[in-house]
Amino acid sequence: MIKYAAIDGMVKFDSLTDKEIIRWMKSKNTKEKTWYVFNGCVPSSRFLAIDFKVSEHSYVSYDFELHGRSIMESVGLQTISNEKLLELNVCVLNKF
Question: Are residues 26 and 52 in the same domain?
Answer without folding.
Answer: no
